[in-house]
Queue: 3 jobs
Job 1
Amino acid sequence: MQSVYVRLRTHARRIAAHLPAPVFYRRFSWAVRLSLEIMEKTPLVGEIQKWVADNIEDDFGHGLKHSIKVAEDAGALVLIESRFLDCPDQDIRRRVIIALCAGLLHDIKRKHKNHAVAGAVCAANILKRYPLTLAEIEDICLAIRNHEAFRSTEKAASSAGAMISDCLYDADKFRWGPDNFTDTVWSMVGYLDPPLEKFIQHYPRGMDSIVAIKHTFRSATGKEYGPAFIDLGIAIGRELLKVINSEFEQIS
């Protein structure tokens, strides 16, 4: 990564460090902990995580770290959304496991055109070797196909499938908050290595996309708590723009 981007990343992380954590993590710490516990103690999830670690391209801002975080939050969202459902605990736990699998696999084809569709096709082939029903595999693949923003979505065959799809989407879009400026952007520029002039030229468009994502959350919990993630990301992005304008005024 160019030294200028290392400097900007340092600025962004300093800005982020002075902001509070998203309210979601304080309000639902129990769900995040339980989701992580299920991830760590479920052999199926562990096997899929290992497969992802061995196969995902980890240099474009959407690698293993991103996938694990999305999976954890998707599982937490399923737990939260399931609180008032009249179904056995083991069914809820199974839905969490399916959401964790979807989260781990959702960006397995991130560099491909139409990466959500390509990822779903890849996931369908991989998942045949694991102890999953055909319906569960379809729920995972549907969630992967539906996780891109600003695109039409496919309808799930069941309420469980719809919940998993919505929760995966929202967990992925949580990353458009602080994570975008502490990690994702810098991994992407480290891979693409754009000239600084081009980075600055596209910066406002990137900020507009973050603003637009604020109104796309799908689950009830995502709609209530997702915008706060985005507000934090916007705050970091605007402060970073001040740094860019002051330090690189001759370019911007």
Job 2
Amino acid sequence: MKSISNAGDLDQRVGRILSELRSRGQRVTPQRAAIIRLFLGRRDHPSADDIHRDLQAEYPMVALSTVYSTLSLLVEMGEAVEVPPEVSRTRFDPDVADHCHLICLSCGAVIDVPPHEVESDGATENFIRARDFHAVRQVREVYGYCAECAGKA
């Protein structure tokens, strides 16, 4: 899934996820719905702490553990991607389309890059097909230093 371009798409995706949670027997509280809506509406790679902090004005009693469990459910459902914790803290990505993360080891910036900009020769696709593996999603991580941090070194 690509980034959500408008409120209607966001409402549809949130509604679909909430229906799926109900069908799995999960509780759908106003707090959980707010976590999902806030997370899916973002275009960065927020941590659970970031989401928790942003919810405090409207839901001051929401627990950080509720945010973590909701984000973990989204990962389990294929509606989020967990960015490895080798950066300062675990963060989550609402973009579940195939893409590459460029992760700065200095400042922790995470930059999304479409897969066609990383690899144009199809070598990875050929490797996957040759092993008769049926890929559902690809997210690659490339670690290094962003232009700003590399310039400071």
Job 3
Amino acid sequence: MKIVALGGQNGKDLRIPLLPQDAARLIELGADLAVEAGIGQSIGVADDKYKEAGASVSSDRSELLKSADVVLRLNKPPQEELSQMKQGCIHISYLDPFNETELVKGMQSAGVSAISMEMIPRTTLAQKMDALSSQANLAGYMAVILAAERMDRILPMMMTPSGTIPPAKVFVIGAGVAGLQAIATAKRLGARVEAFDTRPVVAEQVESLGARFVKVDLGETGQTKDGYARELTSEQLEKQRQMMAKHAAGADVVITTAQLFGRPAPRILTREMVEAMKPGSIVIDMAVDSGGNVEGSEPDKEVNINGVRVIGAGNLPGQVAADASLMYSSNLFNLLEHFWDSETKALVLNLEDEIMDGCLVVHDGEIRNETIKSLVDGKES
């Protein structure tokens, strides 16, 4: 089975899908591996490292696509490349399938099997393949580092002969993977940290990191079977906003992480709430790419709202591309290894496996996820 790893075509995202150490491990499994020339250039990994691992290197992307049984990449493929893949090819990458319905339809028409890395189930068995979580960890870390760099004061308490500098107050909204890492990083840097999540079950995790969990009675909330927060009612959102306004007004840094998988991010901070914050404070909107938690935030821009710096932080993992690539490459290898048949030396799409059932979006000319299928049908009608 021939596996092909392709570099990115987005100059803004420096992450890569496969590192030489995982290339060597794939070859040990018995794969015939080829990588696109320059695949590791963005993070300083030379083509020779892949050759040393046993992979071939080619600059002919079209030929690589035509010969591939499995294609590995970071982000979604361009539509025009779908026709270059042979029928039955397995394409593995981030796909954003709930929004990229035309791409999903194109893969269906081309006879390409599509595995979406966003759709890996959040189960114990799938943890080592869970790219969303691995990248969210880095995003949470980078959100705090970005806030610290943009602030006009320091995070930790400091006692000096000139007096005592109190610790900065950081308020993290959302205690998923990214939020918990933001909490941990802010605490390590000496900040006083508060956090809120609609799921009371995460309070213990927040407090174990040394932060204060802000409680508010929203009635019935909870989480989905995959560990995501459930969408709130309009009444619950209003009660939440009133609490948010109070805690945001006293914070030096607010980091919002709330996202709903496959749906627009909930609006958490209104412009009025931001305007009520202290001048010089920082808001990091980590959900800006999916609609934003903060009114007025813009992707990859810093907006000044009444003296408050609102930063729309898109692709935070890409700012630490070497480590993000290390984690994503490992996620891909673990996925391939889990479904690898050592006798036939091939990737087997076991549809009875809950992991494969969750992430295999298109197979044998069919869209397998009913929600995505209905979205595609809606586009067609």
